[in-house]
């Protein structure tokens, strides 16, 4: 996996990431740090990446279990250390999974498997952050 970050000087502190798969991702800093708030902060993209990684796992695990999953939302709330490096110290992920007759136990298992075995992003963040999860299962069409 590769990624190249390009600073865009004329925008203050904006950065443009070019991923190995050929996609572009903009990032910017807070105005008090020289940024112009044109894009997410780098730490926000890290948090979003963790959410995307675990949501991907949960959906894939449920589909492989032949469950009819039609939606998955993960809301993440993180706390950071007050001193540099301001790593994440707490992370809570709330999963809302929608489908037809989804057993809550299957969703809980998928979330646990992602957290304990498959999600590389949360495995790394778990080195500095206390990670907690909660789930909500919704019936499709309800």
UniProtKB/TrEMBL annotation:
Top-rank lineage group of the source organism: Bacteria
Signal peptide: none
InterPro entries: KH_dom-like_a/b (IPR015946), OsmC/Ohr_fam (IPR003718), OsmC/Ohrsf (IPR036102)
Classification via Pfam families: OsmC
NCBIfam families: PRK10738.1
PANTHER family linked to this entry: PROTEIN YHFA
The protein, known as: OsmC family protein
The species this protein was found in: Ideonella azotifigens
Lineage: Bacteria, Pseudomonadati, Pseudomonadota, Betaproteobacteria, Burkholderiales
